[in-house]
Amino acid sequence: MAALRYSGLDDTDSEDELPPCWEQRTTKDGWVYYANHTEEKTQWEHPKTGKRKRIAGDLPYGWEQETDENGQVFFVDHINKRTTYLDPRLAFTVDENPTRPTTRQRYDASTTAMEILQGRDFTGKVVVVTGANSGIGFETAKSFALHGAHVILACRNMTRANEAVSRILGEWRKAKVEAMTLDLALLRSVQHFAQAFKAKNVSLHVLVCNAAAFALPWSLTKDGLETTFQVNHLGHFFLVQLLQDVLCCSAPARVVVVSSESHRFTDINDSSGKLDFSRLSPSKSDYWAMLAYNRSKLCNILFSNELHRRLSPRGVTSNAVHPGNMMYSSIHRNWWVYTLLFTLARPFTKSMSLPEVTPGFDGFQKPIAHPTSMFLNGGPVLSDDRDGTRCERGSGHFTDFVILTQALILLHRQPVLPQSTD
């Protein structure tokens, strides 16, 4: 009590009444936080009780939530024609004191994307998500949009992309979300997307490389490369190269590459330990859809680690993530056998409301004491390459791998940005 009296926190009659200089505010997703105008700081815990609170129920009839030019939430009473920064539901808050987990893992298979971003305000942040019209990409894009970010859905099918935009706006009509055309199977489309994005003259704080192809029959793209390899890896590689200057100018920024645990079941080196191009873009006689997918996912991790090594000194971090085992999505749609297997396994799979791409953004707005390239599986770190020189199989070939990928793009007459100097 002496400490409370000394700090001026015992001058109120009620336990929940705020001391002088403190103000109670709310976030878009209904969480209460407290602002100290004297010390110019904010915190989630009540300054006296140490409890966290959230808003219960909807706004009263006639009230609407808005956001000012500074990103701060305020409320409009249309009936009495007045505005206030005080949430009218604050009188009906409930305590939120979740039980702390007993293990070191912060997120598990039941964690939703909305829970991972809970309490975070991404107002003013620009996020690009590839393949965002369905599945993991849609849930990730929606979660960011509902937390205030300006989200761009980069998709091949604009009809489905616009439908996804409408679904997000249906949940919050003031969400800043739009769709842009991006076909990763066509390098020129990637180039056009990058040019159109730069023409907007906006920052880029988060780039989620999510789009992927699975179980495709063998085919070559118009650029002359095997489709799974180009869509899952090469297209994203080219996209990041074209946008890396924007990412660096927007620092702190982050690239998240959606990979898979299946990367462990393949290799891209020959018997002598050197990179084998024929394994990246195989001929029809050497092609197996599952193996092509696994190799593309290994490429994702190699690329993410090398990207982090090159750009982290400039404030851009890169992480690869595994979205979760047996997650039911539409990625199996290209072959009826996989569709049957996924349908049979569906009762045991994770809901699409539980994507684990967003653990890559946990602490996005916090400083990182020891920036590292990480492979995340549902939150916990599976591989932590602090020196940026190893990654599962294919270790020791980061630079050769990146040079080879750049050469493939140059071979198909697509200009790339100069390599960053180390």
From TrEMBL:
Keywords: Apoptosis, Cytoplasm, Golgi apparatus, Lysosome, Mitochondrion, NADP, Oxidoreductase, Phosphoprotein, Repeat, Wnt signaling pathway. The keyword rRNA processing does not apply. Gene3D superfamilies: 2.20.70.10, NAD(P)-binding Rossmann-like Domain (3.40.50.720). The keyword ATP-binding does not apply. One of its GO terms (biological process) is apoptotic process. It is found in: Cytoplasm; Golgi apparatus; Lysosome; Mitochondrion. GO terms for molecular function: enzyme binding; oxidoreductase activity. One of its GO terms (cellular component) is lysosome. Residues 1-21 are annotated as: Disordered. Belongs to the short-chain dehydrogenases/reductases (SDR) family. Residues 16-49, 57-90 form the WW domain. It comes from the Eukaryota. This is WW domain-containing oxidoreductase. It comes from Equus caballus. Its main location: cytoplasm. Interacts with TP53, p73/TP73 and MAPK8. Interacts with MAPT/TAU, RUNX2 and HYAL2. Forms a ternary complex with TP53 and MDM2. Interacts with ERBB4, LITAF and WBP1. Interacts with DVL1, DVL2 and DVL3. May interact with FAM189B and SCOTIN. Interacts with TNK2. Interacts with TMEM207. Interacts (via WW domain) with VOPP1.
